[in-house]
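User: Hello! I'm new to structural biology and keep hearing that structure can be predicted from sequence alone. Could you demonstrate with PrgI family protein? Please show me the input and the output so I can see what each looks like.

Assistant: Of course. The first part below is the input, the amino acid sequence of PrgI family protein. The second part is the output, the predicted structure written as tokens.
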Amino acid sequence: MLFSVLACIGAVIVYFYAIDTFGIEITSWLCILVAMPLAALGFVTYQGMNAEEIFVTAIRSLILSHRKLYFMPTNIYYELLKPMIMKKQKEDSLSDDKKLRKIKKERKAKI
């Protein structure tokens, strides 16, 4: 309904501006050319939204809530295997600690 009203308003505005300059025939075609796209917007749908909702959503997202969005990837494979990886790292670090202690004891024994 909103776009049909806008189409009528656009046609009336064009009529009053162009009637004195172009005459009745050309003015009527100009009115049709102005009203047709405005009326066609009433039939537009995108992702289940009509044109009014599309415009409101676009204004909200592009103008009112403009912020930088950062992409933070998540490695699902790592998240699933994280407990096993941490366990393996802990085991490796313990074995390295034992080796280091053994090396330190050998050095102290030499001194």
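User: So the tokens describe the shape?

Assistant: Right, they're a compact way of writing down the 3D structure. Reading them back into a model, for example: Residues 70-111 form one domain.
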